[in-house]
Write a structure and sequence with these properties.
Number of strands of chain A: 5
Number of strands of chain B: 28
Helix content of chain B: 25-40%
Oligomer: heterodimer
Largest sheet of chain A: 5 strands, mixed
Number of helices of chain A: 6
Helix content of chain A: 25-40%
Shape of chain B: globular
Distance between the termini of chain A: 8 Å
Structural class of chain B: alpha+beta
Strand content of chain A: 5-15%
Radius of gyration of chain B: 27 Å
Chain lengths: 197, 744
């Protein structure tokens, strides 16, 4: 992909995000951010394993896993897209399988292995699937991207060399409204081929 | 140059939509005609009737020096937007409002545009780097902040490339030129002998060098920086581009693949609550009564009723949902009346303002050797951006800060000012790069709702609409009924053409074909649903109808659809994209091949100064009544190509998105409510639907650059429809196109 040859502009890329963050930091103490919960009488303490770390949350066990990840654990990589198992923006892996975390009760993943996009890269080193998405320019707004990447990662772990039909069928649980499907298919193929387009 | 929207017919129909035509002077001293669409009249913002009841910029940028370091504290004062922020924003911004030079060499560019995936951020960065002659890594871009960015209007209408990019290029070129002139004067050398690049100004002969930012610390310059770019500023010609027109990764892509980019839904503030709003089960029913007690009994929940507005804020989104469901059980609603989907097109036709005019060429049409008449219909569709409308509102000392995903930050600010009776200085809208809009996020209702809840809760409140709310309460792309009538003379040339669009509007309604007698009209009707913009808006429906009808006429003439079009085209740019798409698709060979239940089709169109042609091959499954698109080839011309890979991505994305309203997407109204407000019942394109897509952008350098976010979507539906006809002999005249309905 020609885009790979171009120089990157990290300054331009991260600026708005950094700008927003600094606005907050200046505006108030982030330490006062509180974990949220449902009504107190419904609460349970639930032990989770998230990205290899033990996490414990005291919350309404009926809350969706997605809400607990985003609102209590500040893991906002998985997105809310529909809340009804249709779009896959909320995809995380539970024991290696892609699940719609918007429709998964947090109590049901007790003591199971949850992986989110945040756990995929090590320090700043991209996972091969992330690398391939970047190389193929397989995104526009990028809101579906974490879910797409998690679905692709799950596929390539069980099927390291999928056919293009297998890729299409595995990815079909995720929606991209910007219409970058063709690029995503290429990116997943590239990741399966060890980075070669 | 030819602009479709400059034709007299279009202007006439536009007048009815409250648009006006104005001229602006661009950098090459060419005159560009631009339609200004007034935000108020284009859309239907919801009017809220509530009862009455900034951080230092310099701190954030670090120890940088404003280019106006010696002038007034520009970032504390109001800039731009002194008139109402219309479609294209405020008056030209002073240079100081556009560009900031920091001591560490970093250059910040400011634009009121936003980035929702169409690439404004990268485009602005490349434009500034080009004109300032610095590497892209030295540029950062701040978008969509109503306090700190000039009002560049809506990020819509394909306006970033033709309007904002020239403004950024002019400002950057002017800053560089002013620095050169100032230093030349100080060093007493010719400006021509000064080399300005990489953030440094140097004079080889005397081996003198100074950084941009040091050179900018000058009292006289400070005054010049308070003015907009001079009209005669020289920008870099396309042939000399080094950064524009070359490949670069989209700026935020790395953060996005890491899952680190913070979308509006990802933001959090200390003590923040999650909001939810009560909606009527039927479309726009009036609230008669409601009891908030069940919500107020819940721990940590705040419930508000203010006129027709009822909402809650709770410590988690789950608790907010439970609270609003408890309130909803107590609500009583008034009756409403709404036509259902099967009555919709009759309803639109019956409610045309001033009635439907008759064909002015009726006599000539009757005299034609052959004449045809057909009616096409276009369903209501939703944008369904993957990130629902979201706003985080926080009140501090009577001032309101809102972080939100919107294509219209200054319009959102105005809606907030009006809803809460606040001066402009008391409302600050900040727009992080958000999860897409496609013309759907021009209004600020979620921000007003979040701010109302935050005021009651005395805490920051985030309101993220549900998917059902997105499908039901966001505005819709207008449905349309399109009547076409045309005749051929004895040599099978078009003699008359009459095109009437009821309800959807006038974009691309003018036929680009040569016809001795032609007329097009866009008529308003009384719309049953709330309507507004959508990627390319009416151009999709008008192109679908016209290009399908052109094929019907080609059949009547016994001509090949490509040859029939070319015989009536004198617009060279449109001709070129059509010929190129057909060549790349291998049309002339493939049209000879006969495969059972397979067919090919083509279509072309023009809108907003850009040109598109599309060829498609379909396979029809007769038992399942399904249309499968196998192969698409699209060619596009928007003038000089600024960001090549981003452009290809936009074209591919538009083709893919366009498959939805072409084949499946349709908002259905039943029993006074939206009947399919979910991705399960409103079927957007999936991986399984995607054909092979080949796109090609013609890089045409001698014309002004036009936008590319919209027009690539308009030709796919008729190309598919025409292919289905060749495969089956069935002419599908409704979007979405369904085989069963045609055969019934």
């Amino acid at each position: 992909m020609a885009a790979r040859r171009g120089e990157n502009s990290p300054a331009a890329s991260q600026f708005n995000a950094a700008y927003s963050r600094k606005l907050w930091t200046l505006a108030g103490d982030r330490d006062t951010l509180q974990a949220n919960s449902g009504s107190r009488d419904m609460q349970q303490t639930i032990d989770l394993s998230v990205n290899g770390q033990s996490r414990s949350v005291t919350t309404d066990p009926n809350r969706p896993l997605l809400d607990v990840l985003r609102e209590d654990l500040n893991l906002t990589g998985a997105k809310f897209g529909c809340g009804e198992r249709h779009c896959g923006a909320c995809t995380v892996l539970v024991d290696g399988r892609p699940v719609y975390s918007c429709s998964t009760r947090v109590s049901s993943v007790k003591n199971r292995k949850v992986e989110t996009i945040e756990g995929l890269s090590e320090d700043d080193k991209l996972h091969p699937v992330q690398d391939a998405f970047l190389a193929e320019g397989a995104l526009q707004c990028g809101y579906c991207t974490p879910g797409m990447i998690m679905t692709a990662v799950a596929l390539l772990r069980t099927t390291p060399h999928p056919t293009s039909g297998e890729i299409r069928s595995a990815m079909n649980r995720n929606i991209c409204r910007c219409g970058t499907y063709v690029r995503i298919l290429k990116a997943v193929e590239e990741a399966a081929n060890g980075g070669k387009p | 140059m030819t602009h479709a929207h400059r034709s007299a017919g279009e202007r006439r129909t536009d007048a009815g939509q409250g648009r006006r035509v104005e001229s602006i002077r661009n950098s090459q001293s060419e005159i560009l005609d631009c339609e200004e669409i007034d935000y108020d009249e284009l859309l239907e913002p919801i009017r809220f009737h509530f009862a009455l009841d900034r951080r230092s910029f310099v701190q954030i940028l670090g120890s940088g020096v404003l280019i106006t370091a010696i002038g007034s504290p520009v970032f504390a004062q109001r800039r731009g937007g002194r008139r109402r922020g219309g479609f294209f924003g405020g008056p030209p911004a002073p240079l100081s409002a556009r560009i900031h030079l920091a001591d560490d060499g970093m250059i910040t560019v400011f634009s009121g545009k936003v980035d929702a995936g169409q690439g404004a951020r990268g485009e602005v960065a490349q434009a500034a780097a080009e004109e300032l002659r610095v590497p892209l890594s030295q540029i950062r871009v701040l978008l969509g902040d109503t306090n700190d960015c000039p009002n560049d209007g809506l990020t819509a209408g394909s306006s970033t490339t033709p309007r904002t990019i020239p403004a950024v290029r002019q400002a950057a070129a002017a800053v560089r030129q002013l620095l050169v002139d100032s230093v030349a004067k100080k060093w007493d050398v010719e400006p021509r002998a000064i080399d300005a690049r990489g953030g440094k100004l140097s004079h080889d002969a005397t081996k003198r060098e100074v950084t941009y930012v040091e050179a900018a610390k000058d009292e006289q310059l400070a005054q010049l920086f308070e003015k907009p770019a001079p009209a005669d500023v020289q920008v870099t010609s396309v042939r000399q581009w080094k950064t524009l027109g070359t490949e670069h990764k989209p700026p935020a892509a790395r953060e996005k693949v890491l899952g680190r980019h913070q979308y509006p839904t990802d933001l959090k503030r200390p003590g923040m609550l999650y909001g939810s709003v009560l909606r009527s089960p039927k479309y726009r029913a009036k609230l008669v009564s409601v009891d908030l007690t069940p919500a107020r009994a819940m721990e940590g929940v705040i419930a508000v009723q203010d006129g027709q507005f009822v909402g809650v804020a709770a410590p988690s989104s789950f608790a907010a949902k439970q609270a609003i469901e408890a309130v909803a059980k107590t609500a009583k609603w008034g009756d409403i009346s709404l036509p259902s989907t099967d009555q919709l097109y009759d309803y639109l036709r019956k409610n045309v303002e001033g009635g439907i005019p008759t064909n002015p060429f009726a006599a000539e049409t009757a005299k034609g050797a052959k004449s045809l008449r057909a009616t096409y219909t276009i369903a209501y569709v939703q944008h369904a951006p993957l990130e629902p409308r979201t706003a985080l509102a926080e009140w501090t000392d009577g001032k309101l800060n809102v972080w939100a995903g919107t294509q219209n930050p200054f319009g959102m600010r105005r809606e907030l000012m009006e809803a809460f009776r606040l001066p402009e200085t008391a409302v600050h809208v900040i727009v992080p790069d958000f999860g897409s809009g496609y013309g759907g996020k021009h209004t600020g209702e979620s921000a007003v709702e979040a701010a109302r809840l935050a005021r009651a809760a005395k805490k920051p409140v985030m309101l993220r609409w549900t998917r059902e709310e997105e499908f039901t309460w966001a505005y819709f792309r207008p449905a349309a009924v399109i009547d076409l009538e045309a005749s051929l003379d004895s040599r099978d040339k078009l003699a008359t053409w009459y095109h009437v669009n009821i309800n959807a509007g006038g974009s691309s309604v003018e036929s680009p074909y040569d016809v001795p007698h032609k007329r097009s009209e866009a008529l308003r009707s009384r719309a049953p649903l709330r309507e507004g913009s959508y990627r390319a808006l009416a151009a999709t429906g008008n192109t679908f109808a016209r290009e399908s009808f052109m094929d019907e006429l080609a059949v009547a003439a016994g001509a090949d659809p490509l040859e029939f079009r070319l015989a009536h085209l004198s617009d060279n740019r449109l001709k070129d994209v059509l010929v190129e798409a057909a060549r790349r698709f291998n049309w002339t060979e493939r049209v000879k091949q006969k495969h059972r239940d397979r067919g090919i089709g083509l279509a072309c169109s023009t809108d907003k100064g850009s040109y598109v042609a599309c060829c498609a091959e379909v396979a029809v499954d007769r038992t399942a009544n399904e249309i499968h698109v196998l192969d698409v080839c699209e060619t596009f011309d928007c003038g000089p190509v600024l960001c090549p890979d981003n452009l290809r991505n936009q074209i591919e994305g538009a083709v893919t998105m366009g498959l939805g309203p072409a084949l499946r997407e349709e908002i259905r109204i039943e029993d006074g409510a939206i009947a399919n407000a979910s991705f399960g019942r409103y079927r957007v394109p999936h991986f399984a639907d995607v054909p092979t897509i080949a796109v090609h952008a013609i890089n045409r350098t001698g014309v002004p650059a036009a936008g590319a976010g919209e027009t690539p979507i308009i030709a796919i539906a008729p190309a598919i429809g025409n292919a289905v006809f060749r495969a089956t002999g069935i002419r599908l005249r409704s979007m979405p196109m369904k085989l069963s309905s045609a055969q019934a």
